[in-house]
Design goal:
Blueprint (H helix, E strand, L loop, with lengths): L1 E12 L18 H14 L4 E12 L43 H6 L15
Antiparallel strand pairs: 1-2
């Protein structure tokens, strides 16, 4: 079964060439006439800005799931905390793999014992 829902929201920008963005409170409306009414009000509030109405279409798909207990994808995980590695996590203490070690950046960051050149622990090997 596939189900769709549509909502509307407003994007604005101060001058042409700037990126479009939602400013202030991020409202959305299920009714297009209501959204057009809000767009007109926004244009009155900020007449020097450009404003546009955006449409968001969300699709929900329901389907039978498999009944086996094995996960569909097995990702490599940190050797210490067992969180799956996420290469898209750019944070210095995030869940991306630290260099070529079997540990995530978060676990490496939590090691505070490296006070001398001879320090060795499960994280720092």
């Amino acid at each position: 079964m596939t189900d769709h829902s549509t909502s509307y929201f407003i994007q604005s920008r101060p001058v042409p060439g700037q990126p479009w963005a939602q400013h202030g409170v991020r409202w959305s409306w299920q009714s297009k006439p209501k959204a057009l009414e809000k767009l007109a009000a926004r244009r009155e509030m900020k007449p020097g800005w450009e404003h546009r109405l955006m449409e968001r279409i969300t699709t929900v798909v329901e389907r039978p799931a498999t009944e086996d207990a094995t996960p569909e994808e097995t990702a490599e995980a940190c050797g210490k905390c067992q969180r799956p590695f996420n290469p898209d996590d750019p944070r210095w203490d995030g869940s991306a793999r630290y260099a070529s070690t079997p540990y995530c950046r978060g676990c490496i960051d939590r090691c505070h014992d490296s006070t001398d050149a001879f320090h060795v622990c499960v994280i720092c090997r």
